[in-house]
Each structure stands twice: as structure tokens, then as C-alpha cells.
Specification:
DUF4245 domain-containing protein; alpha+beta; 4 helices; DUF4245
């Protein structure tokens, strides 16, 4: 008769001693691959990606069939992203989006589109939203779409184009960008 217990009857201590070398190997491999870091103070903000706002909006103005505006943003606002999309659905159309990081480190984006208001809001929000208010800024009417736990969306109809603002920035930044786009130069006039 064998004096050792069958493997199924071994205790948790034996399993723990088997897992410790495996866990150490995983940590060592992750460290070698530089896929983890130790940061006792929490995460730190990295550098803001650079983005050529002038070139992007100029390119969009040459290629899109609606007026593209170039807002003059305040000192300290950093353009960090841009994209072009097609808003799907009824009353859809092309859109141009640029994003900014404000001095407190918050994000706000401007989307310009020929799409209808409800299609544009649904596209950006990922689903339908209900209007929750309105703002009058620089002589323009902005419809505010808000709610609990969602980023606000401000939309204004400029005739041939709808402008949409959204992001995690504060209300003051929304007002600043809404004013800037109201006064902005139209690039493809």
C-alpha cells in the first residue's frame, strides 16, 4: 500500500506552495515586458497628444459640403484629437469632430455636422436623449441634453450645419466654446 495521500486529498497548503512560484513568474514576466508599474500615489496624467487643429479643419472644409468653423480657443486650451464620421440614420450626414483639453485637464469636443439634431445627438450619445434645458449664448440658441450620470450635450442649429458640444468640462468651458464657435471664421465660405 502507498503511504502518500492521493492528489485529490492533498490540502490547501500544498496548493498554495504550488501557486506562489507561478504568481512570481507572472509578475516577473509582466515586469520584463514593461506591462505594469508600481505607483503608490495613484495614476499620473501623461502628456496631452498633439493635434494640428488648423490642418484638420482646413482639410475638412475642403472636403465637406457644409460650413466648417474654426473657433479661436483661449490660451491654455490644447487641441488633442479629431475625427470624421458619417452620422447614420434618417437625417444623417457627414460630421467633423475636434477635441480640446482645458487648463484644468478636462475634455470638451466640438462636432460640426449636416445631420439633423436628433440624429446627431443619438450618434454622439450612443442612443436617444431628451432635452433638459436651453442656453442663449452669443445670440445663439443652444438645446441642452443632460441627465444623471451622463456628459451634457449642447446643440445649436446654424442653418446649414448643426454644432454639438460635449465632454467632461465644466459649464464655463461649454459657454467659452459656444461663444468661440458663434464668432468663428467659416473656412469654406
Amino acid at each position: 500500500m502507498a503511504s502518500e495521500k492521493p492528489r485529490i486529498l492533498q490540502n490547501n497548503r500544498d496548493m498554495l506552495w504550488s501557486l506562489i512560484p507561478l504568481a512570481l513568474c507572472c509578475i516577473l514576466l509582466a515586469g520584463i515586458a514593461s506591462q505594469c508599474s508600481f505607483s503608490p500615489g495613484g495614476p499620473t496624467a501623461g502628456p496631452v497628444p498633439s493635434f494640428d487643429l488648423d490642418a484638420a479643419l482646413k482639410y475638412d472644409s475642403q472636403d465637406l459640403d457644409f460650413p466648417v468653423r474654426h473657433p479661436e480657443t483661449p490660451e491654455g486650451w490644447t487641441p488633442n484629437s479629431g475625427s470624421r464620421s458619417v452620422v447614420t440614420g434618417e437625417y444623417g450626414g457627414d460630421s467633423s469632430t475636434v477635441g480640446f483639453i482645458t487648463p484644468p485637464g478636462r475634455y470638451i469636443q466640438l462636432t460640426q455636422s449636416e445631420a439633423g439634431e436628433s440624429a446627431l445627438v443619438s450618434f454622439v450619445a450612443g442612443g436617444p436623449r431628451t432635452a433638459s434645458g436651453a442656453e442663449e449664448i452669443a445670440g445663439r440658441h443652444w438645446v441642452v441634453y443632460g441627465g444623471d450620470g451622463v456628459e451634457p450635450i449642447w446643440v445649436s442649429d446654424f442653418g446649414d450645419v448643426r454644432l454639438l458640444l460635449t465632454g467632461s468640462a465644466d459649464e464655463e468651458s461649454f459657454v467659452t466654446l459656444a461663444t468661440a464657435v458663434s464668432d468663428a471664421e467659416i473656412l469654406n465660405d
